[in-house]
Amino acid sequence: MASADVELRITGATAFRAAVHNGLKTGFFNGDFQFAHSNASGAFSGASRSVWKGPVTGQGTVTVRCTWSGSVTGTHSVAVNPNGSASDQTLLLVTYLTDANLTTAASATGGEAFSRSAVGSPQTSHIAFSDCYQSSTVYSSPSLTSEVVGIIPFIWVVNDTSATGANTLARYGFDNITAQQARALLVNGSQPKSLLTGNAADTKLVYITGRDIGSGTRVICLAETGYGITRGVQHWQMTGASDAISKLKLWPIGSYPNTSGNDPNGGNGGYTSGGTLAGLMVNKSDSSFQLESAAGTNDLGSAAGGAHIVAFVGTSDANTVVNGGGAFLKYEGSSYSVADVSPADGINDDDFKIQNGLYTAWSNEQILYSSLTTTTGSSQTAIKDLLKASIEANMGAAGITTSSMNVFRTEEAGIVAP
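^ that's the sequence the OP posted. Answer follows.
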């Protein structure tokens, strides 16, 4: 029986988008296909929007559209509450790239067009990828179907510095962050560097930034450190250009959700995109810069002599920070470096630390959905299953396969056990 064309619209976790994009580009289509994405740099793995179109075995021509909004926001988009308010229903809709973004010529490796921005009218989303369980969000009803598709690691990073040295400890004076130190940063917004180095002479401050409340990365950070996933934080918003941070503002007061990630409580906002956060962390903060309160303008003076900025990010964004001059930090004394990849197999050489319980900053990446079409011809359910298999087969350094794990956990920051 000939299959009709089918479309699958995907939203959710920005931390897992590289794995999904890898799965779509490698092994999903069975012939010439086209794709376009929104990343002006040309790196499709970190694009916030993408569209893919081509033949899939047994499914005819398949179109997959991705808009990465964050795990919690993505969960909201597919957890449709028919009794919700009109404004709540509007928030469920997502804008996706249109077919007009696709190249006219296709090839076996994919006809690619990047830096595309033509979006259509807001639409419903079929599935969401999420770093966290639905029960860890405020959108716990109606209950969604959940399927674990892989393991997603997270890494603490520190922004670029002009200091030199053979390793992170020599450059920054510290190379590790503990759960207790992270909690102190999250509740206060900054801490003396001496509390991370053990040297009373280190008078600089260390500031923290991070994602907004629509982010699964934020949920995992707050759960893993024992801070509490519903507790407010004190994040700083960075202004940077010409390789320098010029201002840190306690995250501005505003409404949520919106495009700025602002929150009614000052400091509790954050970046809607891990890519945006990582792109700013490549700036140095060695020189003096302006400090502002959440509601003020140039009202907190300046950070004389500079400071350091730390953040909790996914692997793709961690690579951006390190490639831009920043550094990975150990967590609770254990390192995890996505830069340590064997060219022969494309698998992170540090994966064994997660697979065997030595490094715990990770979560179960899930596919969440309410209802998908299942027919004798083209089927969203079949497309989802084929995509899941392609992601697992082409995970590379973007994540870890569940089949390779020797330890498991069933909730955010849950007990890691064989």
